[in-house]
Structures are given as C-alpha cells and as structure tokens.
Amino acid sequence: MTTPPSTLQPIRRPIRELPDELISQIAAGEVVERPASVVRELVDNALDAGATQITLRLQAGGVRLIGVEDNGSGILRSELPNALKRHATSKIASLSDLESVGTMGFRGEALAAICSIAEVSLLTRVDTPDEPHGWLLDGRSGELQPTARAPGTTVEVRELFFATPARRKFLKTDATELAHCIEAVRRHALARPDVGFAIWHDGKLVAQWRAVAGGGMDALRQRLADVLGDDFVQQAVALNWPLDAPDDAGAQRLRVWGFAGVPDAARSRADWQFAYVNGRYVRDKTITHAARSAYEDVLHGHRQPVYALFVSLDPARVDVNVHPTKIEVRFRDGREVHQGVRHAVEAALAVPRSGTTPEPVDTVPAPAWTPPARQDGFAFRPREPEIGHRVSDVAALWGYGSGEASILRQAQDERVAARTDFVSTDHLDSVRAEPVEAPTHPQPLPTGDWPLGRAIAQLQGVYILAENTQGLVVVDMHAAHERIVYERLKQQLDDQQVASQPLLIPATFSATPDEVATAEDCTEVLKTLGLEVTALSPKTLAVRAVPTTLAQGDPVELARSVLAELGLHDASTVVQRARNELLATMACHGAVRANRRLTLDEMNALLRQMEVTERSDQCNHGRPTWRQVGMKELDALFLRGR
Ligand SMILES: Nc1ncnc2c1ncn2[C@@H]1O[C@H](COP(=O)(O)OP(=O)(O)OP(=O)(O)O)[C@@H](O)[C@H]1O
Ligand SMILES: [Mg+2]
User: Fold this and answer.
1) 154 Cβ closer than 6 Å to some ligand 1 atom
2) What is the pLDDT of residue 195?
C-alpha cells in the first residue's frame, strides 16, 4: 500500500531568514485585505501629518488606482527613502512613546507593506524655504525626481495585488470595493469634522464633506448630518459623560461623548455603530456591549441601535498595539469604560424627547379668517384652551401619591413660568369649561410649552389626540401609561420599597398550591414590591395591600401574575435579577386599559406625566408611545399649498 503524500512526514528544511520583500508581503497580508485597507492606512498617514483637506482619487473600486492627496506636513527629501522602508516611522522612538501613542500610525509598516503588493509613488513637499519644489519617489525603483507641488503629500497606489494574484481573486466588484473605500473614509470623517474630505471615483465626485469650523458637539453634529444624513441627527440625542465634562476636556480622565440614535431609529443591521477610542475607529466588545445594554429597557427584539460615540481616556490606559490594523484595542480597566459608555448612553436616552424636540418648530400660522358674528347676537367665541387641570383629581385618578402629584405640579409650574408671556398661572388650578371673553386678536395656542400639546380627543378608546405647535400628536394611551407606571415603580424600588396601600376589603381568590407556597415563601419580596398576600386557607389567598401606584388595577390579577413570575425565580435574588421583568408585569396591570373613556383632564394629565417621565417615548416593550404628525405632513395629505 502506498502512503499518500502527507504532512505527516515533514521534510526537514534548513531555517533561513526570509527576504525583506517576502516579510513585507506577509505583513501586507495582515494589513491589506482590500483597497479599503489601503485607503484607511493612507488617510491615517495624512491625518497624522496634520492635513486639513484630504482628497481621494480612485479607479476601478481602488484596485487600479488609489491616490490620496493631503495638505499636511510633507516629508523631507532626506527622509523620503525611509518612508517606504519596513519598521521606519517618525511617530514613535521608544517603548514609552508606544505606550502613550497619540497618532493613528506607529508600526512603521503600512507603506512598506503596500509597496510589496502594489506600485507605489510618493509625491511630497515640505513647507520650508530650503525646499522650493517637491519630490517624486518611485517605490519600485527608488528613483527620486524634483517635481512641482504645493506643500503636502500625494501617495498613489496602482494595481493592488498585482504581485499576489491569489489575493486579487478575493476582491468583489468595483462597486462593492468602492463602497468599502467610502466606508473607510466615513469612519475617519466622523472623527475629524475639522478636516475636509473629497472622494472621486473614475473621474466623478462621489462624496464630499467640507471641513466644519469650530469644534465640539456642534461640529460633530454637522459632520454627522453631512455624512449620515439629517435624519440621523434629528433622531439622535447628544451624550456627554460625565455630565460636567466641558466639550474640550482633555483625555486625562474617561470621557464619553457623541450622539446616540433614539430607539425608533434602530436598524436591522449593526452597520451604524461607530465607536472611537481616542479618535481611532475601533470594534470593541466592551463598548458594543455597554451601548447595547443602555438600550435594554427601551429597545427590544433584534433591532440594532445607531450611534457615533467617542471614548477618550489617558492613552496610557489603553493598548492600541493588539491588532495589525489597529481596529481592536485593549483597555486597562474595561469595567470603567463599560460603565462610562453605559451611563452616557442611558442618561441621554432617559430624557423624554417630547421636551427636547430637535426639529425646528414649525410655527402654526395664525388663522387669517375669523368667523363672522352670528345673526342671533351670539358672537363666536373661541374656547379658552384647557391647559390646566386639577392636579388633585389627576392624582386620585391615576393613583399617584401626594408626593408624585407635587412633582407633577412642580413640572407644570416650571413650564408655565416659562411662558408667562401668554398665559397666567391662574389656569393651573381650575379647569375652565365655560367660554370666556373672546380675545380681540387671535392668540397663539398656548401649547408651545407643552411639548406633547393639549389633548383634544380620544380615538376609538386607544389613542389620545393632542394639538401642539407642530401639529397633531397621537399617543398610545395604554403604552404610554404603562411606561409611566413602570418608571415610577422602578424609582420607588430604587428608594428601597414600593409604596403600598392597604385594601379596605381584602381581595380573596382561590389559589393553586404553587401560588400559596410562593406567597408564603416570598412574603418579604412581596412586601418590597408593595404587595401583601396572605393565605386564608390551603386553597385561598387574600390580597391585603397593593402598590399605591397600582391601586386602580385588579388586585387579584396583579397578585396572580406577580406570584407566577416569582415562582419562576429563586426568591432570594429575584429582586436584583428579575427586577425589571417583575415591575413590567406589575405595570401592565396598573396601566389604563384600552377602551377606557378618559376625560380631557385625564388625557392632559397623562401627557404632562409623559413629559416628565424618563424613557416615556417608548413603552416597556420598546415600541413608540407617541408620534408627531406635523402640519407639513397634514398639508401634504390635503395637497395644501401645491
Ligand atoms: N501623508 C504623509 N505625510 C507626511 N508623512 C507621511 C505621510 N505618509 C507617510 N508619512 C511618513 O512615512 C512614515 C511611514 O509611514 P507608514 O504608514 O508606513 O508608517 P506609520 O504611519 O509610521 O506606522 P503604521 O504602519 O502604523 O501606519 C510615517 O511615519 C511618516 O513619517
Ligand atoms: Mg501609517
């Protein structure tokens, strides 16, 4: 029997040093996967050289040509040959430099690697009087020629992978490669609003992002709008952590800033998740996980959040030398970064957006037409908008304690104080059902300071319709109320115990042996949750107290579902581990049901509560609780203004 040729019988070969060219080609294998990798390296270099304008010229998806032109520092003639050598860099000189590296590059390998797999030429000029012209270096021959050029550098890479045809076969269509190249530039562009970028492909300008003056959040917002579109910015909230960090804080302590998309803006793919560490685009599990967990309570299912977030910290606290393409980093204290990112995103998402609508407020034009006086002597009197409601009624209705009512009252007072220009605070304490004296001039609707507007009707027992300065607001009343109740319960539990209210007449029900056992085992947990459930007999349970917030709900249903939930968990740790699930179950029972008729006061109360409740834009299942239908959309529906 013949043995097949196999690796089992190694052929002994002498150990030799590899030729430089082959070493570079091996290195290139790690660094250059496709044209976009070259783009990334060349743009890195241009940014490190302090460029403020970077122009890319690509042909055939970058396979035939990648040219990157910058207006950076240029390279001295004497140093030019070194630029293409392996392990030659101007960016670090010692281990301590490496440990605190602040530039994109530091390995001194990129140009050498690219040279080994493509034809490279380098045209450069430094801005000094001793060098009146530029120099053109041919990467293959090493030949150097004087050439005219403004200060800066242009690197041209032609026929990528010409020497490694096997690699070339892995490339996709030109269009796909081009898309990857643009993506590579986009990642840089988001981190550097101060730098202008232009991308040409086969003679056509395919993307251009102008340098944004100024800095900080405003510049970033502009750049995000330019690169990802206005929608991204309009559907995103700004983050800044710690809260007191100024825009231009140095990187000495951990800082997280940027923009995070609202849950509604989430996508089916995780393709709009841009994370940066000290200005470098990274793919990092700690950051991704932290950001995802910040969305836990508002984004359910498999939707992927969108964000551009920037972590800056002392460079000595992060190792950037763990991956050849530097796309991964290692933090000295991953927990610190996790917490920072999570807090930053969570805090930004918690703020109800109804109060911070980013879109410009379309002012509703004052009606040009005033109805004529009626013949029978009655004048048409526009009804005074009911912006107020009795807080005490509202509190009773929704089961809020007096403390909560006063929070609501305070929030109202603040908003009202902010608009004393057109309504007096008298309206707060009474509901004016009677028409009042008609104003001589049409008055602007006093809805401008109620972000969710003034309730005008209830639709099919499901939706609340309200009017605000932008147009119509539609609220899913059950979903919205459920979130309010849920957040209230969370808050109370964070403060040790859910406020409880004894029932005048205990509600008894026939229970299963499991339910009775759970009720007896979990007395303490139930108490923490604001419930008191005791066994009257081996088959009967009595609910004696319920959370104040849920006093309006059905106590038996509530007790049953909480007992069912508790039965699934280990009683001793349930409040830590399943806290949110438990409270969500409870909230569902306490929230106002569909088909319940609400008065305008009740509806208004709900709207005001939404405005001051964290995360109230999403229900407990991650769906939106309200939508704005702007005047423009309404006008479009009726072909108005065409
Ligand atoms: N566009 C440029 N403008 C000015 N100098 C440049 C430019 N591109 C490259 N250089 C010089 O050439 C050197 C080598 O570049 P190369 O990209 O190979 O290595 P690096 O950037 O130092 O490290 P890395 O391999 O991590 O990218 C750089 O250190 C820099 O001094
Ligand atoms: Mg480099």
Assistant:
1) no
2) 97
110 in ligand 1 pocket by Cβ < 6 Å? yes
Integer angstrom CA distances of residue 248 from 218, 307, 344? 12, 20, 17
Q: Is 107 in the pocket of ligand 1 (CB under 6 A)?
A: yes
Ligand 1 pocket check: which of 43, 48, 79, 326 to mutate, most ligand atoms within 8 Å of Cβ?
48
CA torsion 273-279-283-288 (nearest 10°) is -50
pTM (two decimals): 0.75
Q: Which of 177, 198, 183, 229 is nearest to 34 (CA)?
A: 177
CA 279/CA 102 separation, integer angstroms: 9
Q: Looking at ligand 1, which atom is closest to the CA of residue 92?
A: 22
Are residues 547 and 578 in contact, defined by beta-carbon separation less than 8 angstroms? no
Of all ligands present, the nearest one to the C-alpha of 134 is 1
Residue whose entry in the numeric block shows the structure tokens 């990798």:
37
Neighbours of ion ligand 2 (CB under 5 A): 44-45, 105, 110
> What would the pLDDT profile of 452-501 be if each residue is shown by its tens digit?
999 999 999 899 999 998 899 999 998 899 899 899 888 888 888 788 99
Contact between residue 423 and residue 387 where contact means Cβ atoms under 8 Å apart: yes
The answer to whether the CB of 477 is under 6 A from ligand 1 is no
**Cα dihedral angle (272, 277, 280, 284), rounded to 10 degrees?**
-60
Task: Take atom 12 of ligand 1 and give the residue whose Cα is closest.
Answer: 83
Regarding the beta carbon of 45 and ligand 1, being less than 6 Å apart is answered: yes
Positions of the chain with pLDDT lower than 70, given as ranges: 1-8, 243-252, 355-448, 571-572, 642
Residue 249: strand, helix, or coil: coil
C-alpha span between 590 and 554 (Å, rounded): 8
Query: Ligand 1: does its nearest atom lie under 6 Å from the Cβ of 388?
Result: no
pLDDT, position 553: 81
CA angle 494, 611, 412 (to 5 degrees): 100
First to last CA, the chain: 88
Element (DSSP H or E) covering residue 507: strand 500-510
